[in-house]
Amino acid sequence: MDGRLLMAGGESLFSGAAIDSRQVRAGELFFALRGTRADGHGFVGAALERGASAAVIDRARAGDVDADARRIEVADPFVALHALTRHARRRVPRHLVGVTGSAGKTTTKELLAAMLARRFRTAASPGNLNNLYGFPLALLGVADDTEWMVAELGMSEPGELRRISELARPDAVVLINVRPVHLEFFGTLERIAEAKAEIFEGLQPGGVVIANADDPQVVRVTRRRIAESGGEVAWYGMAGSPPAGDHELTLRVRDLECPVSGQPGSRFVLEAGPWGRGPGGATAGGDPVEIRLPLIGRHNVENCLAAATAAYRFGVPLDAIAEAAAAAVPAQWRGVLRRAGEALVYDDSYNSNPDAIARALEAVAQLPAKRRWAVLGSMLELGPEGPRFHREAGQCAARLGFDPVVGVGELAREMVAAAAAEGAGTAWFATAAEAASFASKEIRAGDLLLVKGSRGVGLEVVVDHVLARS
């Protein structure tokens, strides 16, 4: 890190890193970063009191820190965090797979980590620590004996994913999909795809790409990568055939039932043909296995297929993949079916985009209920096309039988108007708190309520309020 160690009591080992003094665990290094709302140098004392082994501070700010504080003085704590990450990555983990895409990253990451754990010592990046701040924290917390780390890698602007990938130096990448998110900043799907393709920049020589053969933009950037740099691609896809001119799919799905007899989850057969590159990279077929996936919706079958393709390519047999899939649970706020008295709430409140909201509506529409209705928040960062996407979402909700359709946030006005034009009952609220009050009074026995919106709308309060009142 090119720093100067100033520490009472001699040397000390560290077990990880933190940038939020409230989340420091004993033995971690605290990096005092300057943010838009707070400066970490003002919280060095709090971090050390919580058990931080030392604080990494800007040497120009040393006068703002207690002279007795255990500290490492550097030119720039953020640069030092990345320097330490690069150093650690040369040693651990033994292998790293990076997962990216516009939707489904966290679910795919968790599924893949569970599958790899059936055979390897495996770690996964916690939560959504997937940016230039979060990924270093995830990697620095990995145990020294980790054989595979599954890292979610995200981006919100051009160039960001390239920098993260160069820190991660993945042995393999999983490219799930390209969807209309962050359009306000990127403009087109093609530009989003180019930003996602930056994950290839850090891929180690001989690295493997796990790519979705059903997504045209994924196919385009993956083919270009192989044409320019070579390497291996393991294709996967629900459609049952690979992109024209490419090798067969590594795994394929057949006999899909989703939902299963009207109940949440799915059942399908996962099959590897003689084309499949299986355990150890050798050609392997093997008997097909039945997968019973407790996650709701076809989109989660796709996430499971992405994870299974990667796990199979890295040496996990199909029966172990099936066992891991059967034990899957949704991540918090990402498709969790929760009981509210005699009603059900489908909590998908973590985030939203046009593709994700359509998939959630379709999945919930197939589940039995006396009445299905939805609280849908504004979808942010869509740029000039935002109003159109909201109208389409409102139409979709009404046509699938959701009634009432409740919108939250300014852009959701368009959603509500479109649903009303299709004959659905509607309501609109400016804030999540107002919607929460309405929902807790509106829900009744036999209902199935879908809650989904962009992170900035904060619709988790709707779920919390409904559950608390039930």
Description:
This protein has 470 residues and is an alpha/beta fold. 33% of the residues lie in helices and 20% in strands. Strand 17, helix 12 and strand 18 form a beta-alpha-beta unit.
Keywords:
470 residues; alpha/beta; 6-stranded parallel sheet; 6-stranded mixed sheet
Task: Please state the CA-atom Rg, rounded to the nearest Å.
Answer: 24 Å
For the sheet with most strands, the description reads: 6 strands, parallel
The fraction of residues assigned to DSSP E strands is 15-25%
Strand order of the largest sheet: 7-8-6-9-10-11
Distance between the termini: 53 Å
Instruction: Please tally the helical runs, counting DSSP H or I stretches of 4 or more residues.
Output: 15
| Class by SSE composition | alpha/beta
Low-confidence stretches: 275-284
Mean pLDDT: 92
Number of strands: 20
Helix content: 25-40%
Spatial shape: globular
Quick structural gist:
This protein has 470 residues and is an alpha/beta fold.
How are the elements arranged and paired?
Blueprint: E1 4-6, E2 16-18, E3 28-31, H1 44-49, E4 54-58, E5 71-74, H2 77-89, E6 95-100, H3 105-116, E7 122-124, H4 134-140, E8 148-152, H5 160-168, E9 172-175, H6 183-186, H7 189-196, E10 208-212, H8 216-229, E11 232-236, E12 252-257, E13 266-271, E14 289-293, H9 298-313, H10 318-326, E15 336-340, E16 343-348, H11 354-365, E17 371-377, H12 386-399, E18 405-408, H13 412-421, E19 426-429, H14 432-442, E20 447-452, H15 460-469
Parallel strand pairs: 2-3, 3-4, 4-5, 6-8, 6-9, 7-8, 9-10, 10-11, 16-20, 17-18, 17-20, 18-19
Antiparallel strand pairs: 1-5, 12-13, 13-14, 15-16
Helix pairs in contact: 2-4, 3-9, 3-10, 11-12, 12-13, 14-15
